[in-house]
Amino acid sequence: xxxxxxxxxxxxxxxxxxxxxxxxxxxxxxxxxxxxxxxxxxxxxxxxxxxxxxxxxxxxxxxxxxxxxxxxxxxxxxxxxxxxxxxxxxxxxxxxxxxxxxxxxxxxxxxxxxxxxxxxxxxxxxxxxxxxxxxxxxxxxxxxxxxxxxxxxxxxxxxxxxxxxxxxxxxxxxxxxxxxxxxxxxxxxxxxxxxxxxxxxxxxxxxxxxxxxxxxxxxxxxxxxxxxxxxxxxxxxxxxxxxxxxxxxxxxxxxxxxxxxxxxxxxxxxxxxxxxxxxxxxxxxxxxxxxxxxxxxxxxxxxxxxxxxxxxxxxxxxxxxxxxxxxxxxxxxxxxxxxxxxxxxxxxxxxxxxxxxxxxxxxxxxxxxxxxxxxxxxxxxxxxxxxxxxxxxxxxxxxxxxxxxxxxxxxxxxxxxxxxxxxxxxxxxxxxxxxxxxxxxxxxxxxx
Length: 448
What we know:
Layout: H1 19-31, E1 40-43, H2 55-61, E2 66-70, E3 73-75, E4 79-81, E5 85-89, E6 95-98, E7 106-109, E8 119-120, E9 123-125, E10 128-130, E11 137-143, E12 146-148, E13 151-153, E14 182-188, E15 191-193, E16 196-198, E17 204-207, E18 213-214, E19 217-219, E20 222-224, E21 232-235, E22 253-254, E23 257-259, E24 262-264, E25 275-278, E26 286-287, E27 290-292, E28 295-297, E29 304-308, E30 325-327, E31 330-332, E32 347-353, E33 357-363, E34 366-368, E35 372-378, E36 381-386, E37 395-399, E38 405-406, E39 425-427, E40 431-432, H3 444-447
Parallel strand pairs: 1-2, 2-5, 3-6, 4-7, 5-9, 6-10, 7-11, 8-11, 9-12, 10-13, 11-14, 12-15, 13-16, 14-17, 15-19, 16-20, 17-21, 18-22, 19-23, 20-24, 21-25, 22-26, 23-27, 24-28, 25-29, 27-30, 28-31, 29-32, 30-33, 31-34, 32-35, 33-36, 35-37, 36-38, 37-39, 38-40
């Protein structure tokens, strides 16, 4: 079977190959048995004759569908990917992209087709990415991207005094955080799985400046100690592209899943939540997203913060802030929300909407060490809160607005229900609590 990658077996000398040479030999030769149309290229700081010495050179030489294997070392560059390929560190945690003085460590760039998708099926695995002026990893207008096993640390270096000079114009609302550590912008059906994202301005950002953002999975990541902003954010922003006269509605952030992550101690120098869901202004859309089975602890703001600040009646563009689900998460020791979304104490989940809000469900969550477990403020719509385990010393549900909360079938910390001695309580108007659970809710997984 023919193969277009280098056959290093025929180029060996009589000297005993190094361990890295042996590893590269194995990967490159095995690649010849898998796909006749795809090559396996290599990158090494050792200046091997069949390898590139920079990742960018290997990317430029690669054809769509190729795999690039990168040997251990530090590569001082910014890598831009505009074609289908797999970029794999041969020794995870020993391959570093140091983007000091550069915009990004890795930029998967499909913006030539915006607002449509311009690149697909890119894999980035096993890299440490650090010291970029803006995002460590930026993914724009891409489909089926996979980011796995990476360590994204100490990026957003251009941030100074709450501003980010030099940030590209297409990032319409990122000037206060330089785009955070990992940014999926107009990404669709992509996966961010088992990465460590820490010590950036913010953690992982999903947004829609250059196209619709939908169907992405953020799972199994550790997102911690990102000091100014949220751990994981889904935010609908004004479009970077003019789509007609007058206020332009956003492209929208839809149907993303945030699951099994640890989001801890984010926003301690700012106002960051564990997870943020934001449709801040008229015309923005952040709908149908699921936040499930995450551990959200010690964040400076709410464990989950949902905010819409800027609803305006017709003829201004409408707001879609509906049908989000927050289910099966553990909340502990988060902070109070602030500004117009201020809560009278630390809060697990805080939902503020100036627009009518419907279809949002809060279910099967467990709270401890919070003053308020669920806070809600809206003038129209309704919030559904069921099968949660509230901390008995807390306000289980605090309705700060006038729209009702259906809070039936929750465990309030004791058998006699909300407001009883030793139980959590309900606060505010139109909070429906009867019937309640007479024992803590347990999922099927708890019983296995």
